[in-house]
Amino acid sequence: MLRLMSGKSKVVIIGGGFGGLSAAQALKSAPVDVTLIDRRNYHLFQPLLYQVATGSLSPGEIAAPLRGVLSRQKNTRVLLGDVPDIDPVSKQVRLADGATVDYDSLIVAAGSQTSYYGHDVWSQWAPGLKSIEEATTLRHKILYAFEVAERLPDPAQRRAWLTFVIVGAGPTGVELAGAIGEIARQTLKNDFRSIRPEDAQIILLDGGPRLLPSFPEDLAQKAERSLAKLGVQTKMGALVHDVDRGGVGLQVNGTAEPDHGGRVKVGPDLTIANFPDIYVVGDLALSLDASGKPLAGVAQVAMQQGAYAAKAIVRKVSGQPQQKPFAYFDKGNLAVIGRAAAVANIFGVHVSGLVAWLVWAFIHLMYIVQFQSRILVFIQWAIQDLTFNRGARLITGVAPTDFNFNREMAGGDRAVEPKVEPGSGTKRDSVAVPAH
Predict the structure, then answer these.
(1) N vs C: which end of the chain shows fewer Cβ within 10 Å?
(2) What are phi and psi of 91, to 5 degrees?
(3) Do the beta carbons of residue 205 and residue 240 sit within 8 Å?
(4) Residues in contact with 211: Cβ distance below 8 Å, sequence separation at least 6, in sequence order
(5) Does residue 431 carry a pLDDT above 90?
(6) Mean pLDDT value of segment 289-314
(7) In 3D, which of 286, 292, 287, 267 has the Cα closest to residue 277?
(8) Pairing of strands 9-14, 32-38
C-alpha cells in the first residue's frame, strides 16, 4: 500500500488531463495531501493533436511532464500507473501492479477513448485521435500515402492512395480535414514528380445534418465554404457501417443517434450516486447543462469541472457548507480551418476569418501549460504561415495499411476505390484513414 503519513485528508486524482490537472492545481494551498495517478508521465494538450498528426508540431511541443508542472506544489505527489479498479467501500484505488492507494476524496478524470460502437476491429484501419501514439500513426498514414502514390504507375491505385476520409465533422474533424487540404495543396505541391498532391481527394463525413453542430449555423456554413476552398468534400447524413483495408462503407441520408457510451452519470455536484466522496469530471462525466443536454467533452468543461470538484473538497474538509451545483460557463467555441481561416462563437459574438484565427491562436497558446512550449509553438506557427512548411513531416513506425511493394507491385492484392454502399451504420469520433 502506498501511504502518506501527514494525517491530512487524502485526495486522489486519476488522470492528468485538463480536468485532473485543474483539480490538482486548485488544491495547491488546501490542507490536503494530493496524489495524482496517470498511466503516462505527461499532460497532453489534446486540442493541438491534429497538428502533430499533420506534421505542424512535434509531440513534445504539446506535452508537459506532470512532475515538472506540479514540482512546486509540495502537497502533491505524482504516481505513474494504470488504475483498473476502484473500491468505493474501502476507499481504495487499485493499481494494475497490485498496489493500493487510500483516499478520503476521489476525483476521476480518466478521459475517454475513441468509440467504434462495438466495431473495435476498425481501429487498425481508422485510428482515433486521442493520444500521441494515435497522432503519430495518423501522420505516418497521411504522409506515407503520398509516398506510395508517387511510386505507383496505375492511376486507379494512385487515386485510391490519395483519397482521405475523415469521420466526424466536429471541430477536430474540420481542423484535420483543413490541415490535410493544406498539406496537399500547399505544403507538398512542389515536392513530388510523378503525382500532383493537390489532386488528393479529401472527404469529411458525419451522420448529422451539418458540420460543427455545436456552432451557430452561419459559422458552420462559413467553415464549409473555407473547407471547399481547400478541396475538402463534405457529406452529411452519412453513417459508417464498415471500415476495412479497401475503404469505408456508408449508409447515406441516415440519422445519427446520440451516443453517451462509457460515460458516467453524475449529479449536479459531479458526484456519483451513493458515493458523495467520488467526483467524476471531464470526458468521462455525463453531466447536464441548464437545459438538460449533456455537456460536450471539451477542455473548458473539464477544467471548470476539475476546479469545481477541488473547491467542493476544500469546503468539505474545512467544514463549510456545500457549494452550489456545478454550472458550466460557456465561453464559446473555436475551430480553425486553415491559414488565417477560422470560425469563433465568443460569448454569442460570431467571428470568422483572420480575426477568429488570431483569437484561436492566442487562446490555444495561453492554455498550453509550459511557457517554453508556448514559445516553440508560436515560432512553428510563424514559420508555417510564412512558408507553408511543416517541419515535423516525419514518417515513423509502421501501420497496418502500409504498402507491400514486394507483393503488390508484383501483381498481388491491388488497392481498391473507396466504397459507398447501403446498409446500417454508426457515427463515431473523428478519424482519418487513407482509403486504400
Answers:
(1) N
(2) 55, 60
(3) yes
(4) 169, 170, 173, 174, 204, 220, 223, 224, 234, 236
(5) no
(6) 94
(7) 267
(8) parallel
Q: Give all strands of the β-sheet with 76-80 in edge-to-edge order.
A: 76-80, 32-38, 9-14, 105-108, 275-280, 271-272
Q: State the Cα–Cα distance between residues 66 and 77, nearest whole angstrom.
A: 10
Query: Which residue ranges form the domains of the chain, and what is each CATH number?
Result: 9-114+259-317 (3.50.50.60)
Q: Considering 134, 175, 182, 224, which one is annotated as catalytic?
A: 175
Between strands 275-280 and 341-346, the pairing is unpaired
Q: Are the C-beta atoms of 353 and 336 separated by less than 8 Å? A: no
Of the candidates 225, 189, 196, 226, the one whose C-alpha atom is nearest the C-alpha of residue 390 is: 189
Dist. CA 39–CA 78, nearest whole Å: 11
Give the model's pLDDT for residue 325: 96
Write the CB contacts of 271 (distance below 8 Å, at least 6 apart in sequence). 277, 278, 279, 280
Burial class of residue 263 in the structure, from the number of CB atoms within 10 Å of its CB (0-12 exposed, 13-18 middle, 19+ buried): middle
200-235 pLDDT, tens per residue? 999 999 999 999 999 999 999 999 999 999 999 999
Q: How confident is the model at residue 386 (pLDDT cuts 50, 70, 90)?
A: confident
Phi, psi of 107 (to 5 degrees): -115, 115
Per the annotation, the verdict on 175 as an active-site residue is yes
The angle, 0 to 180 degrees and rounded to 10, between the axes of the packed helices 371-387 and 354-367 is 150
Cell numbers given for 95: 493499481
pLDDT score of 8 more than 80: yes
- Residue burial 359-378, b: 16+ Cβ < 10 Å; e: rest: bbbebbeeebbbeebbebbe
42-44 and 201-206 beta bridge pairing: unpaired
Q: With a cut of 60, say whether residue 422 has pLDDT above it.
A: no
Stretch 255-264: mean pLDDT = 67
Radius of gyration of the CA atoms of the chain, in A? 23
Output the pTM of the full model: 0.88
**Per the structure block, which three cell numbers stand in for 323?**
457549494
Give the tens place of pLDDT for each residue, 144-194: 999 999 999 999 999 999 999 999 999 999 999 999 999 999 999 999 999
SS3 238: strand
Three-state DSSP state, 366: helix
Residues in Cβ contact with 326 at an 8 Å cutoff, skipping those fewer than 6 apart: 268, 269, 270, 287, 304, 305, 308
